[in-house]
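Issue 218. Parser rejects a valid record. Input:
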Amino acid sequence: MEILAKARSSTESYLCQRTNDYDCVEKQIDQTFVHTCRKQRTTLIIKSNK
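Output the parser choked on:
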């Protein structure tokens, strides 16, 4: 499967690698990394504090 975004945890990596048609965006808000994966109308937001 194609890695569409650099994930900061294996959970994020797994969720984003489940399918190759995700539009993945990662941004940092304060100390929280928000990893958003969009597929069709579904938005998946994963927050991981580092």
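Fixed in the parser; the record now loads. Residues 10-49 form one domain.
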